[in-house]
Amino acid sequence: MSLFESGLQVMLVAARIPTVRSWVNLGRTMRIDAPIMDLAEAEISFHEGRRQVSEDLAMRAARRLPQGHFMLSRAHYIAGMSAHLAHANRRARTHCDRAFNNALSLSSKRDAVWGQLNVALDLNQPDADELLEKLINLDDGSAISELRLAIARCQVAVRRGDLKNCGKYFASAENVVDRVSEPHARSSFYMMKSAFLAIQGRYPAALEAARRCESYAKDSRLAFALPYAKRVRAIAELGLRNFSRCGNLTDALERHAVRDENVFLLLEAQLIRARLLVSQGLHGRAMEALRHPPARFPFEAERAEFLATLALANACAGNGKVALQLAAKARSLSSSVEVRVLDKCVRGITDLSISAPGAREHATEAFLVASSVGNIDSYVTAYRGYPALLHSAAAQEALWEGLSKVLTDARDWNLIKGTALHSSSKREQPRRLSRREREVLELVAQGLANKEIAATLFISEATVKVHMRHIFEKLSVRTRTEAAVIAASADSDL
Questions:
Q1: Could you say which of 234, 391, 401, 441 would form a disulfide bridge with 249 (CB–CB 3.0 to 4.6 Å)?
Q2: Over the stretch 445-455, which tens digit does the pLDDT of each residue have?
Q3: 1.20.1290.10, 1.25.40.10, 3.40.250.10, 1.10.3720.10: which CATH number matches 1-130?
Q4: 5 — pLDDT class (breaks 50, 70, 90)
Q5: pLDDT at position 425, please?
Q6: Is residue 489 left, alpha or beta, with left meaning phi > 0 and alpha meaning psi from -120 to 50?
């Protein structure tokens, strides 16, 4: 048992969960009842997504481990993160505080502060910025430390309402992500980066990143992480106007959430469905989808986003007074990027609907704020629900460059037909693919590799590579996944 106790931390760092499971099974066979066995079983349950079991076992271990034991902080940390992921954040904060107080090493302190920060953000506690600074000061230059800092900075930025610096943090961490063996850290990084790309309206890249997260979760047997990747895929498909796919993914997400009693994913499915209906012009049905708020919200920022989304649906339906009241309530609860942008969109739509003085300026401000804080996704949903919001911004020639990128990524050029922006030479008309290039692209969309495409079309692999280079240039993409997404889009005219 002393050998297992000394080796557990090493096995966890190396992500050798199967080995830990083998040791635990042996311990059960020998009927060993020791706190380190409780902690090992808690680690396995945490890996499998069984939050309550994990918290209970970790707390049992914490009660039995002697003061000053090198694994005591870990026991409190696992209990805290289990409670946090079950959205029992007040209990989680107590666990994470105890983890910090019992930490004996730099890595244990970093784990504890990481947990404290996640909980503080969900509870909207005032020490979140202080905890982020503490996490930065605990950075030891390791790969896992850099990943967590990128995630933490983005989480804080989302809640504080400004994403403009997050891209560089993710880009830096991307260089070292393959060096991290801890599966939760890597899957969290992949997930947060895909969500960040989706919020920015970079839908092809978000879809590719979500699929990478899904693939990693499957390979690492992190089944609980799969619905979170599915959530980002649904958002990306909605952004790409693949409404049917978005609906199917949202249905699947809702089933997962109900099965796992996951209040966050259940609410996210409700919000995505409402945004899908707004994007289709079905404003009444969107309001109906949000008629019944959850019995409890996972955190206050989600409550605010729910109110802001309901405000948007009401604004698009012409219920301006109700929309403004809901937006004001959302604004009082959170300054997240979603609330900041939806609030401006609601104001712009409401003013446009009654031809209020300064309506066009307010509508244009919605795009300016969306661009400034880095949340294009909420703006895309809003202008799809009320296209006049987009037309007001499109009337400003100074905004054409930024709008052109948004419209290209969202496949929404049809929404501004007949405007000066649509006919402007500033829009770079994409070159059409040749017949052979379209054939190659169709096979790429089916998942075929270059060698398989060459065999199918009776051409050399070198020729396939030439065609792929031309496809990338003409579609202004950098990866096969982005090209395949365009090929699959119903609105693509290749």
A1: 234
A2: 888 899 999 99
A3: 1.25.40.10
A4: low
A5: 40
A6: beta
